[in-house]
Design brief:
By secondary structure, this protein is mostly helical. It has helices at residues 3-51, 56-68, 72-75. Helix 1 runs antiparallel to helix 2 (56-68).
């Protein structure tokens, strides 16, 4: 790689990195909000199951499956 090509690559990098930081921060905040809402919905789901007479252990396991179904790791497969 010549010096000119390297300089062009570095100048591109200097333009891209500062612009990507706010995008990554927004993605992180959105992810945290999504996980928080998912956990809250899981708790409500478990409470509803318990109020309908489902066994506590079964309700807890179903709520865990409910929350786990919204994990990002499941979407990337």
């Amino acid at each position: 790689m010549s010096r000119n090509e390297m300089a062009t690559g570095l100048s591109y990098l200097w333009k891209v990195v500062p612009r990507s930081i706010p995008v990554m921060a927004r993605l992180g905040i959105s992810y945290m909000k999504f996980r928080s809402a998912s956990k809250k919905a899981g708790k409500k789901f478990e409470e509803e199951l318990l109020s309908r007479g489902v066994d506590a252990d079964v309700a807890k396991e179903l709520a865990k499956l409910y929350v786990d179904s919204s994990k990002i790791e499941r979407f990337e497969r």
